[in-house]
Amino acid sequence: MADENSEISRFNLLPEGCIANIISFTSPKDACTAAAVSVGLKSAVESDTVWERFLPPDYVEIVSGSTSPVAAYSSKKELFFLLCDSPLLLDGGKLSLRLDKSTGKKCYMLCSRQFQIAWGDNLMYWTWSSLPDSRFAEVAELQSVFWLGMRAIFQSELLSPNTNYAAYLVFKLMEDHEGLDCSSKASIKFVREKNGSEIEEVDKTISNVYIVPRVMGRRIRRRGGLSETNADDRVSRVRSDGWLEIELGDFFICDGDKFDIQVQVYETEHLNWKRGLIIEGIELRPKEVS
Questions:
Q1: Of 87, 32, 85, 74, the residue nearest 54 (C-alpha)
Q2: pLDDT score of 84 more than 70
Q3: Minimal CA–CA distance to 24: which of 57, 55, 59, 53?
């Protein structure tokens, strides 16, 4: 312990700018931990040198291009946490961006209005409404369909490189929802255009997902009867913002990747009426390490 304290004391003798530069090569979580355990590091951790490194390289363009107001801030640290806690609307309100608080990596959500939805342009099947707790101007409301199908497309260049991402469907359920307690399929694939046509690069493993959470007291319907989900099935959970989400799959983004990421959810096997689903969007964010 004495040797450890001695090392910390010698580290604190370094110029504050040098300490700030060293800390900037860690992570936001590590920086906050360092400030909490060492009073001597607190001033260096507060430095703009540290928090500008944690912000995305294009943060100036992101903030200036936002269609939602950005609160006033007096330091790069304040801006960082503003971008973590208050998602920005981009691209005319079609896309939202926030930062992951632990890593500073980008998290994007595409609004449901930008999805390719089967029969999404027919008001008999889908309608569009505004909800006060949604970040977007409109959300999709499922009125009634036999076949459920939707696809969202993201550009890989938007995301933080060298990061393992997961995709999540963000939604709510109406009180009178029905037909959603059967398994749906989720897939993620990468496609790149070549000579004007799409060339599929990677087709990720298709996952089983259950939109209706098990906590709502319903068993899972499968062909041949009712059964429990298995360890590989994905079920929904409540988010901190009050919406529900379900993980659809994960993928890794390398530095320099350029392709479209197509995230799809569909259910075409159980030909029962489905209704009562409200979709806010699909979010891509760094996958949590358990």
A1: 32
A2: yes
A3: 53
Mean pLDDT of 146-158: 95
**What letter does residue 78 receive in the DSSP assignment?**
H
Q: Which two tokens stand for residue 254?
A: 């390398």
Give the mean model confidence (pLDDT) for residues 69-82. 93
Cα–Cα nearest to 154, from 287, 245, 284, 65: 284
Spell out where the chain has E strands: 88-90, 95-99, 106-111, 116-117, 126-129, 139-142, 148-155, 163-178, 184-194, 197-203, 207-210, 220-222, 225-227, 234-235, 237-238, 244-253, 260-267, 275-286
The phi, psi pair for 230, rounded to 5°, reads -105, 180
Q: What's the whole-model pTM score?
A: 0.86
pLDDT computed for residue 43 by the predictor: 83
User: Do the Cβ atoms of 25 and 53 come closer than 8 Å?
Assistant: yes
Q: Residue 127 has which token pair?
A: 């309608």
